[in-house]
Design brief:
- The structure is a single chain.
- By secondary structure, the chain is α+β, with helices and mostly antiparallel strands.
- The chain has 3 domains: 9-93, Rossmann fold, CATH 3.40.50; 122-182, ATP-grasp fold, A domain (Dna Ligase, domain 1), CATH 3.30.1490.20; 188-358, 2-Layer Sandwich (D-amino Acid Aminotransferase, Chain A, domain 1).
- Helix content is 28%, strand content 30%.
- The protein has helices spanning 17-28, 59-67, 81-88, 97-103, 106-115, 129-139, 166-172, 228-244, 282-285, 290-299, 326-331, and strands at residues 9-13, 32-37, 50-53, 71-74, 123-126, 143-147, 157-160, 178-182, 188-196, 202-204, 208-213, 216-222, 249-260, 263-272, 312-319, 335-339, 350-358.
- Strands 9, 10, 11, 12, 13, 14, 15, 16 and 17 form a 9-stranded antiparallel β-sheet that branches. Strands 3-2-1-4 form a 4-stranded parallel β-sheet, sandwiched between helices.
- Helix 6 crosses helix 7.
- It is globular, with a radius of gyration of 20 Å.
- It starts with 8 loop residues before the first strand and ends with a strand.
Length: 359
């Protein structure tokens, strides 16, 4: 691809905090951002060069949007497939729309990862209460039932316990197509945030360790406390996934670390085809943030250094009213505060994050 010149416009589907941080990173490089979102008060609208407020299935609005941008990317993976198809007929879309189809469906994603020879939890397709019963018989309890589509931050999933009513559990997820996953006895959760360019250049940040609270990412530490061999294997798994998907942009691969006697083994959990919450530490803690890296990749520019600042970096999400302590955080030496400009504080809503670098 021919690199875009400074002054080019990158279209972003979605207007949340990820789009906001993409727009800010692009502006520093002289790239303009045009945000497309149906949500009137999305925080990215405050910082972008242009905006379109329309439904993701409004094909006339999509065509007009595509005519005003040089390339399109997205801040979240649940963009309708039809949206990406319409846009691709007018301009480049990166990552390619086939990646959306791959990552929007947990069953297809698991099959793709297994096809690369990488490990996942055992899984089974679940279409109704009867197939759920058969899957539980095969995979055992406890196990995790997840909707195949539209799940995040613990939404769209349920634990199958020893005494759980299977029909009731399936109905509780709306009767949608699901996947049952075997329980993974992991010792920690890690992720690899990396970028791949259109020429195949690949750069990964330090493997990071993630702690969740109430199914929402609470804290990320970089580097993760894993063996060098485990870190190398994790990055190589992300490289293989990105290459097989012909990926362009920043990608995050979430993994479980499982202890097998004296060794650590990796189990791939999920792929996120976008900048990711566990990569927020790079805004202050790396030479090139994940947001700048993504804008570089989709613009056809060289990827930047992923070298970490300091001995270690810790990022803490500000969930709900955690963000009310902004004044104290601003007064703390070494605390790097990022607020997302959301108009309403709600329990469970990501309002910002704070990063601390150990020098």
């Amino acid at each position: 691809m021919t690199p875009l010149a400074p002054g080019a416009t990158i279209g972003v589907l979605g207007g949340g905090q990820l789009a906001r941080m993409l727009a800010l990173a692009g502006a520093r490089l002289g790239l303009k951002t045009h945000v497309y979102s149906p949500v009137a008060d999305d925080p990215a609208f405050d910082v972008c060069a242009a905006q379109t407020r329309a439904d993701f299935l409004d094909e006339a609005a999509l065509a007009a949007f595509a005519d005003k941008v040089d390339v399109v990317t997205y801040e979240f993976e649940n963009v309708p497939a039809r949206t990406a198809e319409v846009l691709e007929a007018h301009c480049p879309v990166r990552p390619n729309p086939r990646v959306l189809a791959l990552t929007q469906d947990r069953l297809i994603e698991k099959q793709f990862v297994r096809g690369l020879g990488l490990s996942t939890a055992e899984f089974a397709d679940v279409r109704d209460a009867q197939t759920l019963a058969a899957a539980v018989e095969a995979l055992g309890r406890p196990s995790i039932l997840k909707t195949r589509r539209f799940g995040y931050d613990g939404k769209g999933q349920a634990r199958i316990a020893d005494n759980g009513d299977l029909a009731l559990t399936f109905a509780g997820l709306g009767g949608a197509a699901c996947i049952l996953e075997s329980y993974v006895p992991f010792i920690k959760e890690i992720s690899v945030v990396a970028a791949r360019s259109a020429t195949g250049e690949f750069r990964a940040y330090d493997v990071c360790e993630n702690v969740h609270e109430h199914h929402i990412l609470a804290t990320t530490m970089a580097p993760a406390a894993v063996s060098p061999a485990t870190a190398t294997a994790a990055v190589e798994a992300a490289r293989r996934i990105a290459g097989a998907a012909d990926y362009v942009g920043v990608i995050a691969v979430e993994m479980f670390v499982v202890r097998r006697e004296e060794t650590e083994e990796l189990v791939i959990n999920e792929i996120a085809p976008r900048v990711h919450n566990s990569g927020h530490w790079t805004l202050d803690g790396a030479e090139t943030s994940q947001f700048e890296q993504h804008m570089r990749a989709v613009a056809g520019w060289p990827l930047g250094s992923t070298r970490r600042h300091g001995v270690s970096v810790r990022m803490r999400n500000l969930i709900g009213h955690d963000a009310d302590h902004w004044l104290q955080l601003l007064a703390e030496d070494g605390a790097c505060l990022h607020l997302y400009g959301k108009s309403e504080t709600r329990d469970g809503r990501k309002m910002g994050h704070v990063t601390r670098i150990e020098r």
